[in-house]
Amino acid sequence: MTWLVTGGAGYIGSHVARAFLAAGIDVVVIDDLSSGVAAFVPEGALLEQGSLVDAAFVDRVFAEHPVTGVVHLAGYKYAGVSVQRPMHTYTQNVTATVNLLNAMHANEVPSIVFSSSAAVYGNTPAEFVTESTATAPESPYGETKLIGEWMIADQARATGLRHTSLRYFNVVGSASPEVSDTSPHNLFPLVFRALESGATPKIFGDQYPTPDGTCVRDYVHVADVAAAHVEAAKKLDAGVALERAYNLGSGSGVSVREIMTEMAEVTGIPFTPEVLPARPGDPARIVASGELAARDVGWMPAHTLHDMIASGWAAARHTAAAAVPAATAADR
User: Fold this and answer.
1) Which family does it belong to (predicted)?
2) Which tens digits make up the pLDDT trace of 105-118?
């Protein structure tokens, strides 16, 4: 049994690849390394460097490897930047998924676990987001994730493809010091890089309709997210019918300002964050119930906020010492 992990050289993707290998499942990784890092691909996984936008490349990978299932994480994931680069985002996230689904069908690959996003919900008024909460994405990034879900569901109706989509919230922390989040936009790496350089961490917006004016998010540890992928893949391999989508949420929210306070305590570096204007496309509050995922794929968030920050900080310092480059907004 071999599963293809697209985007497997990225922060989340490499954790997913590691989790599959730990479960005794062979892994092939597709990544163009525009934001991924080759060193993040775990030993034992085979890296095929190239873009899903290149249909001929995708076809070759499937022809050369006995792929039995796919975890699809590759894509352009910067919600705020996607507002300025909508066509680029659609090409990377929609065209690429079309190529992937075509190759899967041509090679009779029966199962896919899709990396979706909480961004499909937009700025929902719901106190807790469930899978039945109305989808109303507020950025091209969120729109492309929802379109990806639609395409996979349509393909399933047409061909019998087994599938599910996992809607991620804020994925943080690290299960290995060698793998860190190198995003130029995610909160944790932004704060870590600022602290490492002696700069002041920044809060983007403090006028949101939340208790302290800063965005509220549902933070989950990357190791817990990776484990959910493995369980979903096992279910699909066994022919178990899963729901079309699952939230991977903890059911509790933490504000950006609260994160900053905990960051100072964990790192031992006191600071007062600088407040900047809000970024376009950022919803005020996203907190999700993970009850459905707990029922069907054993979703069990096992890490505390302290765990998330401490493990993320350790990985960030390791990355800085190893001179691993951060991704840039212009990637791909």
Assistant:
1) Belongs to the NAD(P)-dependent epimerase/dehydratase family.
2) 999 999 999 999 98
Three-point CA angle 188, 225, 113, nearest 5°: 125
121 is catalytic: no
Mean pLDDT to the nearest integer, 138-160: 97
Q: Tell me which residue has tokens 């933070």.
A: 219
Q: Is the pLDDT of residue 332 over 60?
A: no
Judge if pTM exceeds 0.85: yes
Contacts 24+ apart (CB under 8 A), 85-93: 85/140, 86/140, 88/332, 89/140, 89/141, 89/144, 90/140, 90/144, 91/53, 92/53, 92/332, 93/141, 93/144, 93/145, 93/147, 93/148
pLDDT of 317 strictly over 80? yes
Catalytic residue of the set 76, 141, 208, 246: 141
User: Is the pLDDT at 330 greater than 80, yes or no?
Assistant: no
- The pairing of strands 202-204 and 245-248 is unpaired
Domain 173-217+251-287+302-322 sits in which CATH superfamily? UDP-galactose 4-epimerase, domain 1 (3.90.25.10)
Decide if domain 2-171+219-248 falls under CATH 3.40.50.720.
Answer: yes
Helices (H), the chain: 11-22, 55-64, 79-82, 86-90, 96-106, 140-159, 187-197, 222-237, 256-267, 291-297, 305-322
Q: Are 30 and 61 in contact (CB under 8 A)?
A: yes
Looking at residue 326, its pLDDT comes to 63
How large is the average pLDDT for residues 4-20? 98
pLDDT digits (tens, 9 = 90+) for 36-71: 999 999 999 999 999 999 999 999 999 999 999 999
Grouping H, G, I as helix, E, B as strand and the rest as coil, residue 283 is coil
Please choose, from the candidates 8, 10, 16, the residue with its C-alpha nearest in 3D space to the C-alpha of residue 326: 10
In the chain, where the domains are located: 2-171+219-248, 173-217+251-287+302-322
